[in-house]
């Protein structure tokens, strides 16, 4: 490539000498020599560039490891980070544990609430109470009380009460009540029971002795051992053979 270019330059110089004369031959030779040197220099530079081996620009493995060690000088930081994460996980478990225990306890609590085990008060037969007894739980009453019983729950009794009763529902099994009885739902009076006072409930079943007026909002049932000495007001009534009523019977429709 360089040789062809030089021949072309000399032919060009010969043409210029022929055209302009030998007077200008020296100047044209100097111009050609200068161009020849410049062209030769460029070619040598290109050769040098081509022959120069590529430098290794990728960092060596040792250098990469050194840089990594500068960022993480030892395993202490990783160990500390692991300990911190472990403590955090333990704290989260402690926070969640009470919620899990509560969730596991809910079915048992719901069962107790359904059967009334968690809301029940018992008065034993050897207990005597003077004064009113008030509460919101179910009541198992076997003792004696001089006063009133007021509760939002269910009352099951075989004791003696000198006072009135207000409850959600009442079952008297051989007990004695000297006072009025008012229940939101039901009253059940079993054989051997005695009530001296007025009664009111939606559903009433009598198989004992009542001395007082009786009001039933829905259904009254008088079984074979029932005795009622008083007036009766009810929407519906069922009287079994053997029942005794001494008073006035009134039927009312709601």
Helix content: 25-40%
Between the first and last Cα atoms, what is the distance in angstroms? Answer: 126 Å
SSE succession:
HHHHEEEEEEEEEEEEEEEEEEE
Poorly predicted tracts of residues = 1-7, 96-105
Helix count equals 4
**Overall outline:** elongated
What integer is the average pLDDT?
75
For the report, how would you describe the main beta sheet?
11 strands, parallel
The secondary-structure class comes to: alpha/beta
Family: Belongs to the bactofilin family.
Organism: Holdemania massiliensis
Protein name: Polymer-forming cytoskeletal protein
Pfam family, one: Bactofilin
Task: Give a verbal description of the structure.
It comes from Holdemania massiliensis. This protein is 38% helix and 34% strand. By secondary structure, it is α/β, with parallel strands linked by helices. The chain has three domains: 50 residues; 55 residues; 131 residues, no CATH class. The strands form two sheets. Strands 1, 3, 4, 6, 7, 9, 11, 13, 15, 17 and 19 form an eleven-stranded parallel beta sheet that branches. Helix 1 runs antiparallel to helix 2. 16% of the residues are buried.
Topology readout:
Layout: H1 2-20, H2 25-51, H3 61-71, H4 76-115, E1 120-123, E2 128-130, E3 133-135, E4 138-141, E5 144-146, E6 149-151, E7 154-157, E8 160-162, E9 165-172, E10 176-178, E11 181-189, E12 194-196, E13 199-206, E14 209-211, E15 214-222, E16 227-229, E17 232-239, E18 244-246, E19 249-251
Parallel strand pairs: 1-4, 2-5, 3-6, 4-7, 5-8, 6-9, 7-9, 8-10, 9-11, 10-12, 11-13, 12-14, 13-15, 14-16, 15-17, 16-18, 17-19
Helix pairs in contact: 1-2
């Amino acid at each position: 490539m360089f040789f062809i270019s030089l021949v072309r330059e000399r032919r060009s110089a010969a043409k210029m000498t022929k055209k302009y004369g030998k007077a200008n031959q020296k100047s044209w030779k100097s111009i050609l020599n200068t161009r020849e040197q410049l062209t030769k220099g460029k070619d040598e530079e290109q050769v040098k560039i081509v022959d120069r081996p590529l430098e290794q620009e990728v960092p060596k493995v040792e250098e990469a490891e050194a840089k990594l060690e500068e960022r993480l000088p030892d395993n202490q930081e990783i160990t500390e980070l692991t300990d911190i994460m472990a403590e955090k996980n333990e704290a989260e478990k402690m926070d969640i544990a009470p919620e899990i225990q509560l969730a596991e306890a809910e079915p048992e609590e719901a069962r107790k609430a359904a059967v009334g085990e968690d809301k029940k008060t018992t008065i034993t037969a050897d207990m005597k109470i003077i004064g009113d007894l008030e509460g919101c739980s179910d009541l198992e009453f076997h003792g004696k009380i001089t006063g009133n019983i007021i509760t939002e729950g269910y009352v099951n009794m075989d004791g003696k009460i000198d006072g009135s009763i207000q409850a959600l529902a009442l079952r008297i099994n051989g007990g004695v009540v000297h006072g009025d009885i008012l229940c939101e739902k039901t009253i059940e009076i079993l054989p051997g029971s005695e009530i001296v006072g007025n009664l009111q409930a939606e559903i009433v079943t009598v198989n004992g002795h009542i001395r007082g007026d009786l009001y039933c909002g829905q259904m009254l049932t008088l079984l074979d051992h029932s005795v009622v000495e008083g007036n009766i007001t009810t929407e519906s009534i069922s009287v079994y053979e053997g029942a005794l009523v001494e008073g006035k019977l009134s039927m009312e429709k709601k």
